[in-house]
Amino acid sequence: MQNTDGLILALETSCDECSASVVQHHAGRVRVLSNVIFSQIELHRKYGGVVPEVASRNHLEMLSPVVQEALENAKASFDTLSAIAVTQGPGLIGALLVGVSAAKAMAYARGLPLIAVNHLQGHLHSLFIEGQSACENLSAQNLPLLVCLVSGGHTSLYVVKGFPPNTLDAQKICESRDDAAGEAFDKSAKLLGLPYPGGILIDKLAKQGNKKAFAFPRPLKGKTLEFSFSGLKTAVATEIKKLGFEPHIWGNPDTAKLPQGQLLHDLCASVQEAIVDSLIEKMKLGLKQERAKGLAIVGGVSANSRLRERLSQEIKVPVFFPDLQYCTDNAAMIGAAAVFQQVRSEALSGDAMLKLNAFSG
Ligand code: KG4
Ligand code: ZN
């Protein structure tokens, strides 16, 4: 009989955050005892995006100290754990391999069950971490719940009809035809000469900009639930050229050739408004179609302040967000999914855990 009330050590290495967390089931929610994140952003910045090989090598170097710190912060040890959880995919295959191999080794050596977690399930389960003010009132009364998962790699709508501790019954009803919203933020930022990852900087610079200064496209408006963001980067590059500047492609940005000051703020505000408009339009459509009684937004882009502001003004049903620390990639959300997987006895043990493979998705 597996211990399902104990502590779970969760690992997340699917992209450029090396993270470990110790979590515990507590009254239908997930208590986070520690959540250590080593961000590789500085390492990748000079390349203008994540370099998969650099990411894998850094995970290899950082995972042990990050795990050590997570155990120490939680006042836990391998002796007090009931299971190890790890992101199995989707993500960068080399980066995932580091986490999966480490988790297998720890679980096998310690005779602990191993829980394989889907990264997207991790983002969805970030809503069930306890102590988050904007999720506190989330309950079965909000079912069906529409969830928008919006990150650097994915932009999808899910309809949720059942909550943990039973299966988080989340059915994907649409996704982006091409780029993800976070990718659209990051690629537009790069063209404007802003460092990776540009989403958070666009959010910041847009605050002093005029969102109506430039009319960027809102594709597939009113036609379908699907998102499309790939045209935005072409529109941004074209606008930069029209203004007499050169879109930034590679290397150190030459500020003399790029928009600065108020013009840059206006471009950021207009790009952000185009992305936020598209997201909100599809969410409204999804809410109507599914007759949803609540809306939740998870993933890195759910940290965007303009998105949060507009949702609070325009959406009639209750809206739920994870705290900022649980929006971007972190191991606590992986632990949150693992807590309920363990309750449902979805853990591997013995030789089965050695057969676990990472998948890139
Ligand atoms: O969920 P996440 O950490 O990683 C993936 O699973 O992809 O999301 C990262 C994405 C990046 O594209 C980043 O630019 C975006 O989230 N992001 C933001 C903000 N904070 C992070 N985009 C817009 N506004 C923000 N405040
Ligand atoms: Zn993610």
Order of strands, main sheet, comes to: 3-2-1-4-5
Number of helices: 10
- Give the N-to-C terminal Cα separation: 33 Å
- Bound ligands, each once: 5'-O-[(R)-(carboxyoxy)(hydroxy)phosphoryl]adenosine, zinc ion
Which spans of ≥5 residues are poorly predicted at pLDDT below 50? none
How would you explain this protein's 3D organization?
With 361 residues, this protein is an alpha/beta fold. It has 10 helices and 10 strands. The protein has helices at 41-45, 52-73, 93-110, 119-125, 181-191, 198-206, 230-242, 261-290, 305-314, 331-343; strands at residues 7-12, 17-26, 29-39, 81-89, 114-118, 145-150, 155-162, 169-175, 294-298, 319-320. It has a 5-stranded mixed sheet with strand order 3-2-1-4-5, sandwiched between helices. It has a 5-stranded mixed sheet with strand order 8-7-6-9-10, sandwiched between helices. Helix 4 (119-125) packs across helix 10. It is globular. The model has no long low-confidence stretch (mean pLDDT 95). It binds 5'-O-[(R)-(carboxyoxy)(hydroxy)phosphoryl]adenosine and zinc ion. Residues 119, 123, 151, 299, 329 line the site of zinc ion.
